[in-house]
Design brief:
Mean pLDDT: 95
Helix content: 40-55%
Strand order of the largest sheet: 5-6-7-8
Strand content: 5-15%
Low-confidence stretches: none
Distance between the termini: 37 Å
Largest sheet: 4 strands, parallel
Number of strands: 10
CATH topology of the largest domain: TIM Barrel
Structural class: alpha/beta
Order of helices and strands: HHHHEEHEHEHHEHHEHEHEHHEHHE
CATH superfamily of the largest domain: Aldolase class I
CATH architecture of the largest domain: Alpha-Beta Barrel
CATH class of the largest domain: Alpha Beta
Bound molecules: ligand V47
Number of domains: 2
Number of helices: 16
Radius of gyration: 20 Å
């Protein structure tokens, strides 16, 4: 008699040569249970990568079936001039040979050239000392006049923190204002690592962890959804990673406002942490898997392929990932400056579809809210 895939996987877990603790935790996940931070750390540190991949895959199927999403999108990075001095950053002008500052007119010229099939504009960059809330609000308004149906995902919590505080407003007032200008959602950048001691070391001048979480919570309550990220592979420990995931899961329990979690692999070129070795692909996949397992209330786990390369992004579809971000069209510099494989990140739609199909998933083009688009 044919067993259901879940029963077959449970039987396999019972047969595996692993400790009783890891077996019990694995069966708990198969039964739909939630891991405590201690259990999450145990499974992450002691569970074999293949087992974690299988558990993550089970959760992925339950949440998203065999679909793997992608979006046609474009990035705008308005400036690389930054008040922060993060050790991992290869983007800000302190370390880059060139500094840039796009004017609103220059950004609008780019937006005007975008093909109608582009669904989402991702605007993020550095924290410029002179630009303010009204400048960025004005930019949103003008984009919406030019392209009313283009979804705008803009300004990380770090950028929002600076512009809203500078305007003397509360987070709620600032976000409500930006929403009235056309803000649709918020990207997940600036989360880095939430542990306060380590955060002080790698990005001590940046928005605090508490403020990052508060800004996202405020946005969710204002009807603006967002993403979450974690920068991993620098000085953090497995316990720091689980702590980061736990703070996100706790917030998501309250608001359900996060769409996707995106693990961001630290790349070591052209920054103050360049002597650190990068994580191995196996470490990367194990982290993707534990993220899918631990964040049981996040609908999507996204692989940002410019950060890890196309090949590994394809493999990540077997470690809990159901979203490959976008076509991008060579519009971001954050990862090329940090030494990523694709110095000019572009993925055509057919390349994306082939990558997804070759991982035995069904490619689904989506809009900014994960609604599938008609084929
Ligand atoms: O916050 C900076 C990271 C982030 C490096 O929400 C680095 O859909 C690795 O948040 N090595 C910005 N990472 C990018 C970001 C993002 C990207 C794609 C999609 C979304 C989304 C958000 O990039 C920063 C930081 O964590 N970063 N420097 C580096 N050397």
């Amino acid at each position: 008699m044919n067993q259901s895939p879940d029963l077959a996987r449970e039987a396999l877990i019972r047969e595996m040569d692993i400790s009783m603790t890891i077996k019990a935790l694995s069966l708990k996940i198969m039964a739909g249970g939630r891991l405590s931070p201690e259990e999450g750390l145990q499974l992450y540190q002691q569970g074999p990568t293949g087992l974690l991949g299988m558990l993550a895959d089970t959760i992925r199927i339950r949440k998203n079936g065999n679909k793997a999403y992608f979006i046609r999108n474009h990035h705008i990075e308005p400036t690389n001039i930054c008040i922060n001095k993060c050790l991992f950053c290869s983007f800000s002008h302190h370390f880059s040979p060139e500094r840039w500052e796009l004017s609103i007119e220059e950004i609008l010229t780019t937006v005007g050239t975008l093909d109608d099939s582009i669904r989402e504009l991702h605007i993020t960059g550095a924290v410029h000392p002179d630009r303010d809330l009204y400048y960025y609000g004005d930019l949103l308004k003008k984009i919406k006049v030019l392209r009313p149906t283009l979804a705008v995902k803009a300004y990380s919590a770090v950028e929002l923190d600076q512009m809203i505080r500078k305007a003397g407003l509360s987070y709620s007032e600032g976000i409500t204002y930006l929403k009235s200008c056309g803000l649709d959602s918020i990207p997940g950048g600036g989360a880095e690592i939430f542990d306060e001691t380590l955060r002080k070391v790698i990005c001590g001048m940046k928005t605090t962890s508490t403020a990052w979480l508060e800004i996202h919570e405020t946005a969710h309550r204002a009807g603006i959804s967002s993403n979450a990220t974690m920068l991993y592979g620098h000085l953090e420990t497995p316990a720091h990673r689980i702590d980061h995931l736990d703070r996100l899961r706790t917030l998501q329990d309250r608001t359900l406002g996060f769409n996707a979690f995106i693990p961001l692999k630290f790349r070591n070129s052209n920054n103050k942490l360049s002597d650190l070795q990068e994580t191995s692909p196996v470490d990367d996949m194990k982290l993707y898997a534990i993220s899918r397992i631990y964040l049981d209330n996040f609908p999507h786990i996204k692989a940002y392929w410019p950060a890890i390369g196309k090949q590994l992004a394809g493999i990540s579809l077997s470690f809990g990932v159901d979203d490959l971000d976008g076509t991008i069209n060579d519009s971001t510099r954050i990862y090329s400056l940090a030494g990523a494989e694709d110095q000019n990140p572009v993925m055509t739609v057919s390349e994306m579809q082939d990558l997804i199909t070759s991982a035995n998933r069904i490619p689904v083009e989506r809009d900014a809210w994960y609604n599938p688009l008609g084929s």
